[in-house]
Amino acid sequence: MRFQSIAIDGPAGAGKSTLAKRVAGALGFLYVDTGAIYRTLGLFALRSGADPADPAAVAELLPRFSVRMDYGPDGIQHMFLGQEDVTQAIRAPEVSRASSAVSAIPEVRTYLLEMQRELARSHNVVMDGRDIGTVVLPQADVKVFLTASPEARAQRRCAELSARGMPQDYAAVLAEIVERDRRDTTRAAAPLRQAEDALLVDTTHLDLEESFHALLETVKKELEA
Ligand code: DC
């Protein structure tokens, strides 16, 4: 059986995970948040005392990096580092920074590529990340580049962090987003960019419901084409 795959790429805070998860639910596809894999490695580097930006130190950790994804009955993607469920822990701001640093290391990307491709070979997937349409699944049935202005993304991130009980200053969050965009788009290994055949969905002026419908319509139209 040939499975279908939908690649959703875009910068941090564009609403990718929330929207991709809902689109996956609407289509009955498996939702795969690939950023969570990089986050789990970032957390492992921090806990191991390795500098997440040091390629040699991080490469040395890879053989001991025991990461697993599991989907509970709730359909939520849980991340395990060894035996520990780190689904919440990987959302901390210092882990965001560490994940961005480790994700720029070519050995890391190569190491994690097969795990992501295997999921798409064995399931219908909606996979979100930065390089899904360009590198991980270049043959994806639908490719979407989901974006929004840095200011809109910073506002949303602040609301999300407050809801998780980790309120942050807007200016600091915006600066962090701008810096993360710069790192994610300028790195040599699989930089964030829109695939030539990806459809652009800009949610700057859309609320969550509008964004969801825009994305779902785009995906459905493309699957039927
Ligand atoms: O989407 P996110 O914020 O959870 O991603 C965490 C980091 O991982 C982010 O800095 C970009 C990186 N990432 C990546 O390089 N490639 C992916 N496919 C997914 C995430």
From TrEMBL:
One of its GO terms (molecular function) is ATP binding. Its EC number is 2.7.4.25. One of its GO terms (cellular component) is cytosol. It catalyses: CMP + ATP = CDP + ADP; dCMP + ATP = dCDP + ADP. Transmembrane segments: none annotated. The keyword Aminoacyl-tRNA synthetase does not apply. It is an enzyme of class 2 (transferase). Gene3D superfamilies: P-loop containing nucleotide triphosphate hydrolases (3.40.50.300). Keywords: ATP-binding, Cytoplasm, Kinase, Nucleotide-binding, Transferase. It is found in: Cytoplasm. The keyword Membrane does not apply. Coiled coil: none annotated. ATP binds at residues 10-18. It holds the Pfam family Cytidylate_kin. InterPro entries: Cytidylate_kin (IPR003136), Cytidylate_kinase_dom (IPR011994), P-loop_NTPase (IPR027417). GO terms for biological process: nucleobase-containing small molecule interconversion; pyrimidine nucleotide metabolic process. Residues 6-220 form the Cytidylate kinase domain. Belongs to the cytidylate kinase family. Type 1 subfamily. PANTHER family: CYTIDYLATE KINASE, CYTIDYLATE KINASE/PANTOATE-BETA-ALANINE LIGASE. NCBIfam families: cmk. This is Cytidylate kinase.
